[in-house]
Amino acid sequence: MAGNYRFAMDQNDIVRFLLTTVGSFIQDRLIDKEQRDQQKEQCAERLEAEDEKTEVRYSDQAVLANLDWGMDALEEAINTENVETKLARLDHAEKMLQVCAMLNSSQKTAGVPNFYLSAWAHLNLSYLWKLRNDVQNAVHHVLEMFCVDPLFSRIDFAPDLWKNLFLPHMSSIVGWYSEERQKIVMDAIPDSADMSFTADFDQYFNESLIFSVRPDQAEKMQNLEQVYGQALDDNTKLYAKYYKDCMNFDSATSKKLMPMMPIAEPPMTPMHEVSRSIPDHVKFGPALPKTAGFNQATKAKDSSINLRLKSASNSSRDLEDSANWDPEEGIPEEEEYESDNEPYVFVGSVDKGNNFSSNIGMEVNPKIGSKSSSQKHSPAVFTPADSPKAPTSRNSSPKADSHSKDSSSMLRLLSTRAMDGKVFASGSCSPLHQDTSSGDSDNGTPEHPKSVRTNHSRSVSYGKVNTQLLEKSFSNDCEEGSQSYISLPSSEKMTPHSRVPKDFVCPITGQIFYDPVTLETGQTYERKAIQEWTKRGNVTCPITRQHISANPLPKTNYVLKRLITSWKEQHPDLAQELSYSETPRSSFSAPPKDTPSVTTPSRTITLRDQRSRDDSNNHKPRRFMRVATSNSPTSVISQAAVETIINGLNPYISCLCNSENLKECEASVLKVARTWKDTKGDSGLHAYLSNPAIVNGFVDILSASLNREVLRTSIYVLSELIFSDDRVGEILTADSDFEILASLLINGLAEAAVLMYLLKPAISQLSPYNFLPSLIQIISNKTEDSNDLDLVVDPKDAAIALLEQVILGEDENNRISKAMDIISENGIPALLNCLNREDGRHSIVFILLQCINADRNCRNLIASRIELSPVLELFHAGDDNVRGICIEFLTELVQLSRRTLSNQILQIIKDEGAFSTMHTLLVYLQMAPMEQQSSIAILLLQLDLLVEPRKMSIYREEAIEALIEALRKKDFPNSQITALDALSSLLGRLTMSGKSCTEVWLLKSAGYDKPYNALMKAEKQKFYDVELTETMEEEEKAAISWERRVAFVLCNHEKGMIFKALEECLKSNSIEIAKSCLVIATWLVHMLYSLPDTGVRDAARKCLLDQFINVLQSSKNLEEKILVTLALSAFTNDPGAAGELGVYAKCMYKTLRKLKRNSVVVNDILKTLMNLPSVNAADMWSCAEGPELNSSMNGEVLALLHVKGRVISSHSDGTIKVWDATKRVPRLIQEVREHTKAVTCLYIPSPGDKLYSGSLDKTIRVWAIKQEEIHCVQVHDVKEAVLELVANNSIACFAPQGTGVKIYNWSGVPKHINFNKTVKCLAMMGDKLYCGCTAFSIQEVDLQKHTSTVFYSGARKLLGKQIVQSLHVHDSLLFAGGSSVDGIAGKVFSLSTKAVTGSLTTGLDIQCITVNNDFIFTATRFGTIEVWLKERVTRVASIKMGSGGNAKITCLTSDRDGQMLFAGSSDGKIQAWVLD
User: Fold this and answer.
1) Which end of the chain has less Cβ packing within 10 Å, N or C?
2) Tens digit of each residue's pLDDT (9 = 90 or more) over 955-970
3) How confident is the model at residue 145 (pLDDT cuts 50, 70, 90)?
4) What's the confidence (pLDDT) of residue 69?
5) Is the pLDDT of residue 125 over 90?
6) DSSP secondary structure string, 509-529?
7) pLDDT over threshold 90, residue 1021
8) Burial of residue 1118 (number of CB atoms within 10 Å: 0-12, 13-18, 19+)
């Protein structure tokens, strides 16, 4: 008991200690902005140093951008006083920082270990939670930082905090380290035998001691440092985990034991007792320079690469080797890292912060740094064996200038511009991608190769390098290039006074203001940058997120501009470097032709889109990499040798140009080609062969020769000439020349496509020829017979480029036609097979996208065969234009009718790559043009929805936010339409052709099948081999699951924010926007009530209910009204919404009744409205008297029936009439008189295809009901007068003049069932017959057993007759009407329970009764019809028959939908009413 109490107290003390210590540390950081900026600068420099070694992929930018944005948002939250703004920025910062905090620690991002980024993110998250006054969460993130990356946490992020929390537990490790270090140092110090253990060894460290260290001693020291550092890291993790356990432990609820404090054990047990005090020379982390990147950390973790300390005895040999370095053998490489020109560090050196450096180095000769002031060098790490006076020369890095930029923009520049900084070697002053070459200096002395940089590795050259000449050449090459890579001198460390003031730099461009404008939010931006921001549809300030007006931007901030001008005069170098420029800062201009180049120029080729063909024809595509001819005097052959070769070719050239002998000319072509290959395309030979006469000679061969080898060779030579010099192509501008190539291409010569492509033909030259089959044949060809020629462009790549140009050059209709031709030529499989080629992927994706747009069905073929990884690689590496095409292509690709297949493709897209596509899409979403944002958001959202949407996802939140933002842009209707179309495709109901069928599916759900059936019929005719109506159970389950996920995330985002956006769209004046929005809103509401209630139903009701009612009342489109009824039927499930519907009940009622025949859900709405206590049923009723039909010549109207738009009446003279009731005035279409006496009764059973009539002539007739007439098919003599009749295919039941009822089976004698009561009316339901009798009783007859029972027995009365005059069965209810007894003339019974469910309270006797879906109509003998609400059995109105006199109503009938009411009278008239 005591033990438990003691541990609990210890744990509480630990928690209090952590909360106090960490809280104080974070509070100090939040107060000290300078310290935060310094730390950010330090970390950004580490990232930048690593970036110099690694090519940054676009997906890596995504993570770095999130980290950068998160820290910016956090800084804004710290600085703002507005509580609402603070909370909003903290929420945004949390979303951004969580992306980095959750990275996989075992991987890297842009070459930076993920554990570093994750630890940095956790540190910032601790600041965030402290701002939210949640210290406990802040402590958790700090401890997680130490768990994830203990090394940099204790040397970079929080060294002071580490000393307070962890160092007290490390005394045993420190003691072990001191003892082991003493042993090694004592071996190195002469005469150390008499020294005490506690002696201060630092006074013995000097330069002579450093160089007296033996290799084995150096190796021991290095191993000791590594083991010591690893021990500190491991135990830091151990104690951080212990602290976390303490924070999470709850003694009251936890069943686990209190976590026990670990013990830090040293790697080795000392041989004797050591002092537990920490000596001054002990260090707790390597003194890594900020620009050293992460090499030291990663090497220590991997334990795979150790720094080597060379022996002093080898120093002279090493220096001699480096001095005698041969340029032809390459440049020796040395392992190094940058140190920002900090002083050299010796083993055992002590600094003020007790940071001991394990690096043994040499001081760099300052003279070397001064020789090239325009370059920033990365000092090498020298070994003790290297001479301190050895001069060095190192590569200059184009990224070295980043140290001169403001620290706050370091990370942003890295994350957003890394991919834009690709430098190509043509005329560039950058050493990136350069080949070693030599050239003449000013004094004629050959210049040595300067440097070689391969795969971003650094190299160091020694010896006879003329650094002054290097500086001069480098400066000349960069003179006309971009200034974005100009570096400060390496000897100058940037001071705060030399940095650009933060207020002078635009937060968007990262450059000094040129035309600053200050918005109403107080933030200042570059005018062109903020204009571009607003053009993309943004209406908020980029930093404060406050709304900005759409009016013209304010005038220039001249005060700030004058301050900047003054500052530029004082700092011209920095001003020139960071000044605003119209051109991209990462591009280099080519030097003038007369400027000697230090490298061999490299030319490249890429496919061009149509837009760049007209204005960028001078640029070669870079995707076909090939080194051009060398113009250097040190070429592979001398000038004299070139002249000799040309002289030898003269006879062949003369023959080619002048001879009429085709075979001789063909032989000359082959000879010239062999010579060209042997000389490797020498520039002198190129100039000789570029003569127009010679070029035309090759063209003549192309037109005359039939030898395939000669034709291919001629094209090879011409393509080489044109590739090296575009001016050669200008010779072949005649239409006849292009016609020759076109003929060769059509006849199957694949190489002709290469030459055609290099000639850059206009679309007008391509259009007259049908190249498509030939180009597709080239693309489909699996053989590579042109490899022996080594063409500058692969024929397949040229064919793909030409195919793209053919499609791009057409208008919309012709483009579709060309795409259909590609499909018909079976070009899609060929194009898909070429996707694994890096060249032409952009063109292939574009062509495939055009094919999908032309024929939606081909997406299924593409989806089933495509390999998606090349497309995703293209997306990651491409520019905005390429990414836009990739997004559109992937969005189209996943729009499949089969949900399972669509999910499989989405899963491939999600899993492909490192961490992927989702990160890349997220970043691109935030930077993409407005017209692309909806497509990106939908694709990102679909990837996120592959798993159950239970937890918060930044991808989902940002995607939905982008969609909602697009819906709200009233000033950009195209953006709204794009967002609505994207949402429609997201819902998952698609046809085989990829069209959204959500609308017709919703109409079908409402009972209106016509549009759905028409669409399915059209789809079947188009895709007859696919059964769309019969979906597999698995597909249906997948579709339902997908719909529920989509509806859940859309409805629950920000408590139903999407409903507000849809409300605004429904108010749009655009019919297209309003209609699309109505479909999506209906679908969301329909799905909402099938999901668990999460509190967003009120938001849907408040935003959409009024809009739905408005559409119902104002729209003239039937389908729109039916969609509204489906949404309203969903609202009826919500008591709150149903109550609001009651307000609109009266205005909706008429419209809803008219929709009953088209929508099955209307009945549910009407039923709900009628049952609302707030609704007065009488207010809902309305009718208009219709025409009166006079049949008095036929006597009394005895029976009326309504069926299929027809009214059938029987009369006392034996006549039966058929009326067309589809018109407002019924029209008589048939009159028959086959009965000889009065037709007393008519009956039509459920199928509605037969009519049965009973008469006083003792016969029952069976009639077939046709479209325009009825035809008597059977006559049955039953021997008795028929007063009432019900029948079906098996039997007929009728009431005779006596008591009981008779059953006739159509072939025998009627069977009499007598229950001693006179039957006045009959009704049949299944195998039960109900008989209305005297004494107000109802008998039930079992038609199978021919037995009768009492269904209902009325009370006996002494006075008056009590008779059931009429029975009617409707919806499993039995309605009975007759004599009024005690004010009740009718009752409603449940057939299943025989219980009375309602009473018709009236003092008038009921003569006949009829029922429809909404109302009960009862007729009295005095010509009055009373109307009753069916659901509540309450009287709502009464109708008076218009005919005068004493005529009584003999019969009633109504259509099932309740649109019309008909009444027959004793004077032979039929009155109609239109029920509104």
Assistant:
1) N
2) 899 999 999 999 999 8
3) very high
4) 85
5) yes
6) T-SB-SSEEE-TTS-EEEHHH
7) no
8) middle
Residue 759: both structure tokens together: 């000639």
Model confidence, pTM: 0.57
CA distances from 662 to 670, 715, 989, 1239 (A): 13, 17, 66, 108
Residue with tokens 């109550």: 1139
Q: What is Dmax (Cα atoms) for the chain?
A: 148
Give the C-alpha separation, 330 to 461, whole Å.
Answer: 9
pLDDT of residue 261: 63
What whole-number distance in Å separates Cα of residue 663 and Cα of residue 659?
10
Q: Do 170 and 235 contact (CB within 8 A), yes or no?
A: yes
Three-state secondary structure of 877-920:
HCCHHHHHHHHHHHHHHCCCCCHHHHHHHHHHHHHCCCCHHHHH
What pLDDT sits at residue 208? 52
Per-residue pLDDT at 264: 60
N-term to C-term CA, the chain: 84
Tokens of 1356: 């006996």
CA distance readout (Å), 1250 to 91, 186, 1101, 1262: 72, 120, 48, 7
Q: Burial letters for 1185-1224: b for 16+ Cβ neighbours within 10 Å, e otherwise?
A: ebeebebeebbbbbbbbbbeebbbbbbbbbbbbbbebeee
Which sign, positive or negative, has the C-alpha torsion 1378, 1381, 1387, 1392? negative
Please spell the DSSP secondary structure of 1040-1058, one letter per residue: HHHHHHHHHHHHHGGGTHH
- Rounded to 10 deg, the angle between the 1071-1088 and 998-1005 helix axes is 50
Inform me whether the pLDDT recorded for 678 exceeds 50: yes
Contacts of 1245 (CB under 8 A, 6+ apart): 1252, 1287, 1288, 1289
Residue holding tokens 């920002």? 340
Q: What is the CA radius of gyration of the chain?
A: 46
User: Hey, what are 238's tokens?
Assistant: 């151990």
**Token digits for 749?**
């010569």
For helices 1135-1143 and 1162-1170, what crossing angle results, to 10°? 80
Alpha-carbon distances of 122 from 97, 148, 637, rounded to whole Å = 8, 9, 62
Whether 1370 contacts 1390, CB under 8 Å? no
Element (H, E) at 1107: helix 1097-1114
1135 — pLDDT class (breaks 50, 70, 90):
confident
Buried b (16+ CB within 10 A) or exposed e, 499-532: bbeeebbbbbbbbbbbebbbbeeebbbbbbbbee
**How many Cβ atoms sit within 10 Å of the Cβ of residue 303?**
10
Find the Cα–Cα–Cα–Cα dihedral 1399, 1403, 1405, 1410, rounded to 10°.
-40
The average pLDDT across 803-822 equals: 84
| Measured distance CA(24)–CA(133) in Å, rounded | 13
Among 222-231, 325-334, 1355-1364, 1389-1398, the least confident range: 325-334
pLDDT at residue 1270, rounded to an integer: 92
Which helix or strand (DSSP H or E) is residue 1062 part of? helix 1057-1066
pLDDT in tens, 624-644: 333 333 333 334 345 677 788
Q: Are 1463 and 1419 in contact (CB under 8 A)?
A: yes
User: For residue 764, what are the contacts with CB-CB under 8 A and spacing of at least 6?
Assistant: none
Amino acid 690 reads S
Q: Tell me the C-alpha distance between 84 and 1330, whole Å.
A: 73
- Rounded Cα gap, residues 1281 and 1310, in angstroms: 12
Sequence-distant (≥ 6) Cβ neighbours of residue 345 within 8 angstroms: 287, 357, 359, 360, 361
Tokens of 1047: 């509806």
